[in-house]
Amino acid sequence: MNERKGLITFQGKPLTLVGRELKVGDSLPDVALTAPDLSSLKISSFRGKTLIISTVPSIDTEVCDLQTRRFNEEARKIGPDAAILTVSMDLPFAQTRWCQAAAADRIRIASDYKEAAFAKAAGLLIKELHLLARSVIMADKNGKVVYIQLVPEVASEPDYEDVLKALARVL
């Protein structure tokens, strides 16, 4: 499995990303995630819409909470031609609890806890922590990646304005 060192840090400490590096122009990996009801959720089920995938290390941390709340708010504004999916390694039960507490009703949320299939297929698995790196990936309605933002410091939020500018170009 490919390893890339030093692209991200956690509190300044370099980390290693595992998996094939996803690039603009690639097709989104069509892996199965676990939905909050424990059913399988395939990435391809979003075809026909622009898809923003927000990956977070753990929904129960401050920055992940802020990121997911922000994308839930943005989802209220983007209309029916786009969808936002938050992916983490958290168990579906924790994700459901968080969504209820945060009144997150506009985004979809899914877990990659079983096999880290999405994390590995997108090159976002943090080897040292077995968590997803913080990133935002956007694919067009055909599932082609049009935007990637890998956040260099795991403890920092993404550049939301850059994501929204990219979304406006795609829609």
Give your account of this protein's structure:
By secondary structure, this protein is of the alpha+beta class. Helix content is 24%, strand content 30%. It has helices at 62-75, 92-102, 117-121, 160-170, and strands at 3-10, 13-18, 32-34, 40-42, 50-55, 82-88, 108-111, 125-126, 131-132, 135-139, 145-150. The strands form 3 sheets. A 5-stranded mixed sheet has the order 7-6-5-10-11. Strands 1-2-8-9 form a 4-stranded antiparallel sheet. The model has no long low-confidence stretch (mean pLDDT 97).
Cα-atom Rg, whole angstroms? 15 Å
What is the approximate shape?
globular
**How would you describe the oligomerization state of the chains in this entry?**
single chain
Give the overall pLDDT as a whole number: 97
Could you name the ranges where pLDDT drops below 50 across 5 or more consecutive residues?
A: none
Intertermini distance: 35 Å
Main beta sheet, described? 5 strands, mixed
The count of strands amounts to 11
Short recap of the structure:
With about 170 residues, the protein is α+β, with helices and mostly antiparallel strands. Helix content is about 25%, strand content about 30%.
Q: What is the element layout, followed by pairings?
A:
Blueprint: E1 3-10, E2 13-18, E3 32-34, E4 40-42, E5 50-55, H1 62-75, E6 82-88, H2 92-102, E7 108-111, H3 117-121, E8 125-126, E9 131-132, E10 135-139, E11 145-150, H4 160-170
Parallel strand pairs: 5-6, 6-7
Antiparallel strand pairs: 1-2, 2-8, 3-4, 5-10, 8-9, 10-11
